[in-house]
Prior knowledge:
The structure holds two protein chains of two kinds.
Chain A: H1 2-11, H2 16-26, E1 33-38, H3 44-57, E2 62-66, H4 83-92, E3 94-97, H5 111-119, E4 121-129, E5 142-148, E6 158-162, E7 165-173, H6 174-190, E8 195-200, H7 208-221, E9 227-232, H8 233-242, E10 249-252, H9 254-268, E11 275-281, E12 287-293, E13 300-305, E14 310-314, H10 331-343, H11 347-363, H12 377-386
Parallel strand pairs in A: 1-2, 1-3, 3-14, 5-10, 8-9, 8-10
Antiparallel strand pairs in A: 4-5, 4-13, 6-7, 11-12, 13-14
Chain B: H1 2-21, H2 26-42, E1 49-54, H3 60-73, E2 78-82, H4 99-108, E3 110-113, H5 127-134, E4 137-145, E5 158-164, E6 174-178, E7 181-189, H6 190-206, E8 211-216, H7 224-237, E9 243-248, H8 249-258, E10 265-268, H9 270-284, E11 291-296, E12 300-305, H10 322-334, H11 338-354, H12 368-378
Parallel strand pairs in B: 1-2, 1-3, 3-12, 5-10, 8-9, 8-10
Antiparallel strand pairs in B: 4-5, 4-11, 6-7, 11-12
Amino acid sequence: MASRLVRRFFQSPPVVSSLLRSLSSVASPSQPIRVTLFPGDGIGPEISQSVKQVFSAAEVPIEWEEHFVGDKVDPRTESFLTWESLESVRKNGAGLKGPMATPIGKGFRSLNLTLRKELGLYVNVRPCFSIPGYKTRYDSVNLVTIRENTEGEYSGLEHQVVRGVVESLKIITRQASLRVAEYAFHYAKTNGRQKVSAIHKANIMKKTDGLFLKCCREVAEKYPEINYEEVIIDNCCMMLVKNPALFDVLVMPNLYGDIISDLCAGLVGGLGLTPRYSYSTLTSHMIYFSMSFLMILILYSCNIGEKGIVVAEAVHGSAPDIAGKNLANPTALLLSAVAMLRTLELRVKADQIHDAIFKTIAEGKYRTGDLGGTSSTREFTKAVCDNL
Amino acid sequence: MASGIVRSVLRNRAGKIFSATSFTNPDSGRGFSSFNRCLSSAASDSNLIRATLFPGDGIGPEIAESVKQVFREAEVPIEWEEHYVGQEIDPRTQSFLTWESLESVRQNGVGLKGPMATPIGKGHRSLNLTLRKELNLYANVRPCYSLPGYKTRYDDVNLITIRENTEGEYSGLEHQVVRGVVESLKIITRQASLRVAEYAFHYAKTHGRERVSAIHKANIMQKTDGLFLKCCREVAEKYPEIKYEEVVIDNCCMMLVKNPALFDVLVMPNLYGDIISDLCAGLIGGLGLTPSCNIGEGGIALAEAVHGSAPDIAGKNLANPTALLLSSVTMLRHLKLHDKANRIQDAILNTIAEGKYRTADLGGSSSTTDFTRAICDHL
């Protein structure tokens, strides 16, 4: 056991936090790992309950510390998330987040923005994979999008130059680019991935995307066993819709990451059964509406912060129309939790639960509505527990 | 007949003067030049429309020859004025394109451009950049529709992407702030946004389209994309019969890969347009099948094939002329020669659908000349 620990320490890059976790995970039942849980809104509480149920059935040594989004804005955080919630994630180093509906209004930051800024979450990792037994146009998707999450086009620095002319600043820094490239290659190595593709538009944006690429190349040299390539974003989109099997791990600055990760989600996910419209009528002839579609509730993502903080979350919304009806698919949150387990070095348990989930879906007997079945949340959860 | 010629000659001259000077109101500029073209196309045989042709490099000359052949068979009243990329840099244009070539496009008002290989080096502007700046090409229009008979994962694509082509993220204004920190400016102006929105709605109206979707990320880039949206909304109010919607770009990509039939006409700033138009090209089978047209001030239209010059198959009679042919069809539509355009388009689609004559990139084994011959037969 000790030699295994030592070997693991030397094999993976010297990240102190994962060593700490290895040590803490060894002392399992007597010293459970504390993880912050934000059940969220809408279907959040139900699917969080599923996660807790599956974890206790699998005897995962985790102790949940639940936090809820408040009703009032906490002045210390300028948002509905309290300072205590954020401190809890900082201390525990790991969090699981259900879908949170962002309240409309002014005077506070959005919940996602608060988490991101306060916890220094610098990279968003979203695995996209074809779901066995659920047919879409694409059968062989198995890629991971790694998106820089702090700068780039989303720095929010805009101003009006003169009337009718507006500027927006896109910032790329060496530090942030190196950081996300390091994570991407580290992820590829520890997860047995063979290729990392950097997505850019450096032929046009020579200095900004050029700097991003330079940083990626520097990191690539440290990982000679991993293939590295650079793909222009418009080519990348075209290749993704023609043959997504061409890609393995994609690392990108903020905006491209946003676009590509949602594109990949569309490749493997369905649009679901219920398109949701929010519209406002300006005149009797015009209706402006923006569509947000309910994805199948499968996709998850992990946000990584400095010092190894992990906040895993389900990518879907809070689905208020099916909240409380025992209809929601807990897969996304379950897979988020599994991803979190992996970063906590509880790989055996992670694989066990992962296999149980996919076995249940592939079997087809118990499937929730978004995957075309008729099972309830509880039935599906029970089936996963049985398959453990 | 004589009075018709006199009338059309007078209107030609007047049309050119008007279209050259009425920049402030794009509607009237377009109106006059297309009115002018209506008249010139009405007096067809005796009054051929002159169009500039850039065959380009690599497979360019072969596919340009295909286009000329098909147009001759279909008796399209177009007279080609061919121009080639020079060997030396013309100091007046700072590129390999000569001033005469550019003047020719300005004068004729329409052009067709084959693939051009950009020479490596410094001291000159890229060819595409030269064309865009000198001719003030502000909108890039790409009709994307599934080709019946060429199966991709998507069968029901029928949309147009209209991309603002002068500003946005591609303004090229970058600088280093301190070591390791670089900034790039994204510029959005009211004038350019209004211009492209006007074109999008005008296009939708004249081509019988029902809906225009503006693609943006205004929830994050509130001022820049917000200004773009504001301009689109202003123009939308002038076209009450056309539905208008706004879609965030990441949602848009997701919807496009799931169900492209949801979209009709998309209008977008520069970067999103680049991404989405190539995405849509991928949906229907790639750049080798996608037509494209660049619209400039004063009603100039420069249709082009967006694929590369494919030097490895140049001169071997293997190239697929579909992209350039379909681009020439969009050029005909711009000239309001709709029946000729429809005839040629149907001939192309029927040939591909039949499957007997297909070039190598579509999975067949025909040569360029065989494929062209088959299209001519289908006319």
